Amino acid sequence: MPKKAGVSQVSIYNYFGSKQQLANEVVIYYIDQEWMKYEQLIHSDLPFPDKIQQIVFDKKRLADEINENFYTYLMNEYVAGGYIKQIYNEKAVPLFTELLQEGKVRGFVDENLSSEAMLLYLQMLNESMQKKRNL
Fold this sequence. Notes:
Elements: H1 2-5, H2 9-16, H3 19-42, H4 48-65, H5 68-79, H6 83-105, H7 115-134
C-alpha cells in the first residue's frame, strides 16, 4: 500500500497509528462508497423491479469481488457493533422501508405486508449472519 500511495510505510503508520486503524478506515471508506451507490439506486427513477434486480445482482457482484478475509473482517465489524451496524440501523433500515413503501404504492408489494414484518425478516437475516460467523 505505501508504494501505491507513494509514501513510506512509516508515513502510513504515522498517519493511521496502527494496522487496525488503517483497516477500520478502509472499511469505512468501502462501506461509504457502496452505500452511496445504493442510495442513488433507490432514489433513482428506475422502475421498482429494476431496482430490486440491481440490488440482487449487485450483492452477487460484491460476493464475487470481495476477498474472503475482508468479508470476515466486515462481518466481525458488524457483529462487534461498529460502523457497519451503525449504518445498517441508521440508514439501511429506513431506506429499505422507503423502498418497500414504493413497492406497495406501485403495486409490486402486497399492501397487507407490514413494514414490521419485512424488518423482522431483515433482523432474522442479520442474526443468521451472526450465527454463521460464530460457527
